[in-house]
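Researcher: Here's a chain I'd like modeled. Treat it as a single chain, no partners, no ligands.
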Amino acid sequence: MNPLLFRVEDRPPVLTSLLLAAQHLLAALGGIIAVPLVIGGALRLPADQVVALVNAALLGSGIVTIIQCKGVGPVGIRLPCVMGTSFAFVGAAISVGMEHGVPGILGSSLVGSLVMISGSFFMPQIRKLFPHAVTGVVVAMIGLSLVPVAIDWAAGGAHSANYGDPVNLGIAFLVLVSVIGLVQWGKGIISASAIVIGMFVGYLVCLLMGKVDFTQVQHAVVFALPQPLHFGLSFPPSGIVAMSIAYMVTMVETTGTFMALGSATKTEVDGKRLSSGILCDGVGSAFASLVSSPPVSTFAQNVGVVSLTGVASRHVVAFTGVMLLLAGLFPVLGALVVTVPQPVLGGAGLMMFAMIISAGIQMLGKVEHTKRNGLIIAVAIGCGLAVTARPELLSKLPAFVKEVFGSGITVGALVAVLLNLLLPGRPVESEHEHELQARELEEIASEAA
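Model: Modeled as a single isolated chain. Structure tokens:
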């Protein structure tokens, strides 16, 4: 694990913070914009309505990111979290939207968010279900589930006509090598900015090769005011049930992401802190519905940015929230960032997501080597990878089953938790274990300082 250049409470100079925040923006913006584009395309919405969804998603993601990082009373985990519209809700959103339109999606999301808000009050109990063996599996599965995404980016984008073109792979490789070199041999801000510098190198090469498409920039409006309740709200019972299930799945994934973030930032994530983070996810999604955005959740890919750069400052990522907010108000800015070619994202993404896997392996390395723990780790990762590598495995099963078990992260987490509860010889959870874990993290943080 890299030593921390900036710890959670550190406040780098403003210009430095903006540069470091830009890395998180580049890692997240594509995913945030993709969700409303996919939903709008599936529902065949007019172009102006798709634009309204995109602007709302950027605005909502920015505001909730700031709250998650800075905290407002009991809301917000106060760690470097980037919030954004989540693909975990896409399946439910499209199924609801086909019958009830965008108002049905937003109304169902608003009511369904109560599941996450209610669940946040039970996180101290849920935290006890995540001993070292389970947590390590979840963190490793987050990285393993994201690596195929980076591979698709590096190859030119999933379903692209030139998928796997040697030029795409070469650009991705150039970015990857640049990032590795800057992290390994760069000093201070150069090392911390490795991702954004490496992506700039790749972007410059693509620009010289004529592989950057500025069409979206030309068509983007310069300024757009937010439009709360632009689509209206409706509350179909079937839609509320579908969204509630999606929120339960997201709560499991978000818990794992927070645990991974705790490892990356060398911070003890106890039940109380988990409660604040999950509460922000729930309240943030309710707020997103009111500003006409799909639900939001914590982005796992940004944990890789923290792991790779050693920049754990929550104040830096709060600047990312400000940038997302501005992108929602000035769509032309978001359109400019989206011009970054997929292979450039792939080279950086592969490094970021692999760092999450590395963090999970390091956590699993500290687990006691017993037959029981070996079974939990092996079966949970195997089942999680089965869904990740072959999603068509669930194609013949009911929609409800696909909704719950469609994510390798969720499958890995649920299998690990269940095996930990069911296999005989389960260690008794104690406050002493959590105190030891907290002390270990404090020692690591003090050494890094």
